[in-house]
Each structure stands twice: as C-alpha cells, then as structure tokens.
Amino acid sequence: MILDRKSFLRLTGLSVLARKLVAAVTPKRWAMVVDARKCLQKEGCQKCIEACHRMHNVPAFAEPRHEVRWIWKEPFERAFPSQENLYSQAAFRDKPFPVFCNHCDNPPCVRVCPTGATWKRDDGIVMMDWHRCIGCRYCVAACPYGSRSFNWLDPRPRLTQMNAEFPTRTKGVVEKCTFCEERLARGEAPACVEACPEKAMVFGNLADPASEVRQLLGARYTVRRKPELGTRPEVYYIV
Amino acid sequence: MFLFEKAVTGSRKYWIWIVCLFAVIGAGFLAYLRQLQEGLGITGLSRDVTWGLYISQFTFLVGVAASAVMVVLPYYLHDFKAFAKVTILGEFLAISAVTMCALFIFVDMGQPTRVLNVLLHPTPNSMMFWDMLSLGGYLMLNAVIALTTLHAEQKGIAPPRWLKPIILLSIPWAISIHTVTAFLYAGLPGRSFWLTAIMAPRFLASAFASGPALLILLCMAIGRLTKSSGLREPVQKLAVIVTYAMILNVFFVLMELFTAFYSQIPEHMEHFHYLFAGLDGRTALVPWMWTSAILAVASLALLIPPGTRKNPKVLAAACGMVFLSLWIDKGLGLIVGGFVPSPLGAVTEYAPTLPEAAIALAIWAIGILMITVFYKIALAVRESLA
C-alpha cells in the first residue's frame, strides 16, 4: 500500500488521538501506602531493601559518604521532621520508617534538571535517564527527601551479585527508586511490595476509586513527608 | 593572534611568573585526569554535601565577573572620565572570571563528556540552563567590547558606534548573571538556608564589593610593576564603591540573621548555628566564618573614614580583607552551609581533598594567567601610544 501525504498525516493524527483516548479512559497515577504499624512489627527487617537493591544492581559502597540507596529506613523524627512531638509519639520517635522516592506530583528534581534526564511520566512515576544525566547533582540538591544518590565512584566493582536483566550504572550519574517501572510494565508489583512479609506496603492506582490504595486513603488517617513544601508526595504513611 | 605578540615579550620576572602559573596548572591537570578516571569520589564531597569547593568558587567568581559593571556603568552611562583607564581592566577581569566559572562547572560534572546535553536538550524550567546562557552571553559581550575598544585605542580612534548598544546591553546582563546564579540556590524547597528572597541582592552586594576590591589591588600592582600613571583617581573612586557595597552586604547578612533567629524556625537557624557555633560537635567551618565576620567589620572600620580610605597602604589592606572575607563567606560558607544539616537532619562535614584543591588551584591559575596576559597586552598598547 502506498500512502499519500494526506492520508499519512490523517493516520498519524488518528493514532495519536487513539493513544490519548486510551490513556484518558484508563488513567493511571501510581502511589504507595505504607502501613507503618505493620512494618514496625519486625524492626530489624531489611527484606524490602534487600529485594530492591539486589534487583536493581544497587552497589554497596563501604564508605557511608559514597552510599547509594533506593529504599532505606530513617527514624521517624528524621523522616517526618515537622511531625515532631515530645510526648505522644515517644513510641515512634526513633523507630525506623521505610523511605524512598515519593514520586511527587510536583517534583522539584524534575524542575531543576538542566537536560531533561529526569522527568515525570503520565502515570506519575519520576523517571531517570542514566544516559542523558550529566552528573551536575542539581536534582540531589533539590530533593527535600534525600531520595537521590550520586555514583561518586564506579558502582560496578561494588556489586556483590549482578542481576543481568537490569542495567548497571556508570560513575558520575544520579539514580533513585523508579517504583519498579520495569516490573509494572510486566504487570507485576514493585519488588519491595512483593518482598514485605507483613504486607505493609500497598501499591496501586490513585486514579481508580476502587483500588486498594484509594480505599485505604479513604478509610485511614495517613501522613506524607513534608507536604508543606508543595511537592505533593505520592507515598502515604499510616502511623 | 590579535595583539598576542605583546604577551610573548617580557622581562625575566614576567616569564618566571608565567612558568610558575603553568606549573600549578599542570599539577591540577594531572589531578583532574585522576578525577576523570576514578570519579568525583576522590573529592571530599559526600551524599549529604554534594556541592563543595568547585561550585562555591564558581559562585564567588560569577560575582567577580559581574562586578565589571561597576566600572562600565559609571564610565559609559555617566561619562565618568576617571574610569577611562580601568574600564578595559574591569572587562578583562570579567572575561577571566567567567572562564574560571565555566571551568569550575565543568570539573564538577559527573559526566563531563555529556555537558552539551544542556544545549542539546534545552530545559527552560531549569535555572542551570539560564545560567549557562547568561554566562556564555556575558563572556561573548565582554570579549567583543574589550577587544574592540582595545583595537580602537591602539589606532588612537574612538570605538565604532555599533559598540555602544552592546556596551549598554552588557550592563543589565552583568546584573542578570549574578541574579540567575542566586536563583540556582534560592528556589529549592528543601534548602532553608538558601530559600531567601534576599539571596540575589546579597549576591550582588558582595560581588560589587569583592570584584572592585580585587580590581583596586590589581591596579595597585600594575602601578608598582609598570610605570603606569593616572590610576590613583579611579582607585579612590572604586574604594567608595567597595565601601558602599560592603556596607550593604553586611546589612543584608544581618537581615538574614534577624529573620532566622527572631522567627526561631529551627530549619532556618540550624545552618547559621552550624556555621558560627557548630552543630552536634562538628565545628570545621566555625573559625573560618568568624574570620570572615571579623574581617568584614574590620575592613569597614578602615574603609568608612575617608582619612584611612585615602591612604593607599591602608586601602590595600582593607581591600585584601574585603576580598578574603567575602571569599570565605561565599566561596566556602554559603554553599557548604546550605547542605549542613541535610534535609534529613544529618550533620556531615566537608573538607576538600588534596586533588580537589589542586584542581581548584589550577583553575585559579588559569584565570590569573589570563589576567596577566590580558593586562600585559592592554598596558603594552598604552605604552606604545605614550
């Protein structure tokens, strides 16, 4: 079949429209709800961290100043500094809370990136292009959650085991949690969600009123990290 | 090359100076090769303090570059004849400073080979994109202006008429480079130390003090090394500019302190606590910051009374104090202080490593080399006319 210019343009236009329509009919906004009380049942548990870091080839640097991390545990008072309260939360203050990229709806890291190497997808995931990143670390300075790590040295020799199905990174680029977009594309839940023995992490589509995350958010009191900064984080905590 | 022949003839002292500069540049280049090989991990930077010596030198030098406007504006807008001889020196200083800025940004990149991505994928929402544009533009403007006026001076004619609008454009452009540089920091939601509307005005005030202070010292050095005359009057006028700018700068810093400590909002106070008293027993920057504060007050004590300001020796000392005080304040405290404590409350200290310092020193040497060569050319042109 030979297409003339007019019908080619018409077809292109139609296919773009069709994509937009499909997206409009099934909108997606990925989000996470962490039930801290379930998580705290086993305080020393590292299963989510191990699963994530193994799957994504996150290197283990000996020196803390070179640490790369996608998900880690932070004491409550550091993860939620504005929630500080001397008395009622004494049970919580030093307790470790799992923290990771909040996949903000209004991400400052994306705003400052000078190359578009980090951007927000239509489904809300804040993504990274490790081939475009120039390593200026402006996004690291902009993130109010410490969720971004820079590869100060070559990460590859620091991998204890390698997952051949996921890319490794080079020195001099920034990386962070991607909500396991490669697993989502296959219809699987993020690795941390799957690895949690207490089922403390619930992942789902905020745009779907019937989703488990929406049900939980509707029924339970939840907090977010530093919502006053206007970043609109999409990771919620039941405390 | 254009007038370059004037830079390759000089006394024995001149050549020793040039060789020394090249030695420093060579050492830094070797250190940079190591950084290229191993990564930025060879610096003192860390996951909590992600910008250090390189970016703070960049910030300080943008100010030095912008300060050329303090001679260009009075000379071209107000026809202030006393600055006739120093205007070109200010412009050459700006060219050298902007080049150092670009180099400091370059050595801070994790993937320097990809740096052109900033232009290949232009992102107007990023302040870094605008900073690159404004610095690049400023370099071009000053290069065109300085070379054209020098050429005209050599021929003993007035600069061409088309140059005037370019000179006028360079005035707001100078203000813009330092404003955009302040915006790099002042718009980040989680960094309370930088989240202040007075950042850009404070940047400009400190720039208009430190740049002209350096220019005064350079003029005095020229006066000693060569038989140039007629630099006494512009130096005295520049001293007045330094005085006012330094007063404004100190005033702005006091305003920052008032807002932080009267409001008592912890995240606004903590950074000042860290810088001037230490936090969690970490006190690396405390002696530096107090040195800076004392030098600032002492320099004003020497600059404000006309009697001391008019004494060349006292003025030289005061300018050295202004320069050092602002170099510590902006070239050390302002950037590092913004990272301590981290948004998660971690107090991690930073100190540059030896290779990092060698690289920074080499970039300074490149800038000093440029100033030396440019000033040599400019003065040779003048001598041949006299």
State the CATH class of chain B. Answer: Mainly Alpha
Protein structure class of chain A? alpha+beta
CATH superfamily of chain B: Formate dehydrogenase/DMSO reductase domain
Radius of gyration of chain A: 20 Å
Keywords:
A: 239 residues; alpha+beta; Alpha-Beta Plaits; four-stranded mixed β-sheet; two-stranded antiparallel ribbon; 9 helices; 10 strands; B: 386 residues; mainly alpha; 73% helix
Summarize the model shown.
The complex is a heterodimer of chains A (239) and B (386). Chain A is an alpha+beta fold.
Structure report:
The complex is a heterodimer of chains A (239) and B (386). Chain A is built from 9 helices and 10 strands. Chain A has 239 residues and is of the alpha+beta class. In chain A, strands 8-1-10-9 form a 4-stranded mixed sheet. The termini of chain A are far apart. The model of chain A has no long low-confidence stretch (mean pLDDT 92). Chain B has 386 residues and is mostly helical. Chain B contains 14 helices and no strands. In chain B, helix 2 packs antiparallel against helix 4 and helix 10 packs across helix 13. The longest helix of chain B is centred in the middle third of the chain and has 32 residues. The radius of gyration of chain B is 21 Å and the shape is globular. Chain B starts with 11 loop residues before the first helix and ends with a helix. The chains are: A alpha+beta (239), B mainly alpha (386). Chains A and B meet through helix 4, helix 5, helix 6 and strand 6 of A and helix 5 and helix 6 of B.
